[in-house]
Amino acid sequence: MFSDVGPLELVTLAVLAVLLFGPDKLPEVIQNVTAFIRKFREFSENAKQEIRSELGPQFKDFEFEDLHPKTFVRKHVLDGDDLGLDEIRSALDPRKELAEVSDAVREAADTSEADAAAPAHVNLTKDAGADSAARASFDPDAT
User: Fold this and answer.
1) 140 to each of 6, 99, 109, 113, 126, how far by Cα in Å?
2) Are 140 and 112 in contact (CB under 8 A)?
3) Structural domain of residue 85, as residue ranges?
4) Whole-angstrom Cα distance, residue 8 to residue 70?
5) Which pTM was predicted?
6) Between 134 and 28, whose confidence is greater?
7) Residue 8 pLDDT
8) For the chain, how many structural domains are there in total?
């Protein structure tokens, strides 16, 4: 019943009730409120039972929560099937791709560290110059 009310709000309500009604009348007020809640619940249950009996025996297991739009669509339109929403969510989840990219960056950093540790020799061919220019643009310490 009080799922959205936190402990601080309950303490605030208790202090406010003591200030409004006083410590002498507070037990009487609490009894009146609880009696009202019991009568309201009883009235509500009786109304639900009367509606179920008027609907007939095929609606014996009818629940009023099923009238909520989300529940109604899920139960009657989708027949319990979520239309593959879990597969769509997993396909759109970027964690797998991010893990692959981070692994590739780590591998590139490891190879560049291995190249830096190897003795340097100068190769003046055209391909070696392009390769060293490509390696020079990647700084593993900056990542």
Assistant:
1) 50, 18, 5, 8, 25
2) yes
3) 63-89
4) 32
5) 0.41
6) 28
7) 92
8) 3
